[in-house]
């Protein structure tokens, strides 16, 4: 009898350790990818060290892409172990150039995920700052309102109609691969961390990492 109990406890311990390792591995992969893209952009050898692209006035950008999202509910209905793939279209950014390298912006990042066979969207409205470290490479980050709600095409009465809010932090980096006149096309990566308050004092926490392209006008 003692032997069976001991075996059962060992199985539970191994299962918990496996979940913890998986969770840590996913976060490490996202952080490593984010760091790698930043390092590659920083290492670019730009022959023309002068900024030859004029950025002034208002800035508008929309982006599309895809990535991974992990969700965990304090109620136990979702776990960070259940990683999903999702799309990020559309992501919007509005702002104003303070000078040729610095802009203040408001961003609307987000990603679609599935919960109980319904499509939902976790995103936010993030006041942020964008800075061009090099002629083509920029970094971008901020903190603001997290919004968790039904995907607009999948709202159902009494099933998938709840909206939840909280706090979110965003960091992104990108590299302009094509520029002409007042237009720039960039490749970018983005990390979004957030949490919202659910009914019955439950919480939902989200980690999402995405890769995509952005279309910018200055």
UniProtKB/TrEMBL annotation:
Keywords, comma-separated and alphabetical: Signal
Signal peptide: 1-43
InterPro entries named in the record: OMP/PagP_B-barrel (IPR011250)
Protein name from the UniProt record: Outer membrane protein beta-barrel domain-containing protein
Superkingdom classification of source: Bacteria
């Amino acid at each position: 009898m003692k032997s069976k109990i001991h075996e059962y406890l060992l199985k539970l311990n191994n299962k918990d350790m496996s979940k913890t390792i998986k969770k840590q591995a996913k976060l490490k992969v996202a952080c490593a990818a984010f760091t790698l893209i930043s390092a590659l952009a920083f290492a670019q050898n730009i022959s023309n060290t002068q900024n030859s692209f004029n950025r002034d006035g208002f800035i508008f950008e929309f982006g599309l892409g895809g990535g991974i999202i992990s969700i965990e509910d304090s109620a136990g209905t979702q776990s960070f172990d259940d990683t999903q793939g999702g799309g990020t279209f559309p992501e919007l950014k509005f702002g104003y150039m303070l000078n040729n390298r610095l802009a203040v912006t408001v961003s609307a990042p987000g990603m679609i995920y599935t919960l109980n066979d319904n499509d939902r969207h976790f995103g936010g409205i993030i006041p942020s700052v964008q800075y061009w470290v090099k002629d083509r490479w920029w970094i971008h980050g901020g903190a603001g309102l997290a919004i968790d709600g039904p995907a607009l095409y999948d709202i159902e009465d009494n099933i998938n109609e709840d909206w939840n809010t909280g706090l979110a932090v965003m960091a992104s980096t990108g590299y302009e691969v094509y520029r002409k006149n007042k237009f720039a096309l960039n490749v970018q990566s983005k990390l979004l961390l957030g949490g919202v308050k659910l009914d019955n004092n439950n919480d939902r926490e989200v980690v999402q990492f995405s890769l995509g392209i952005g279309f910018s006008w200055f």
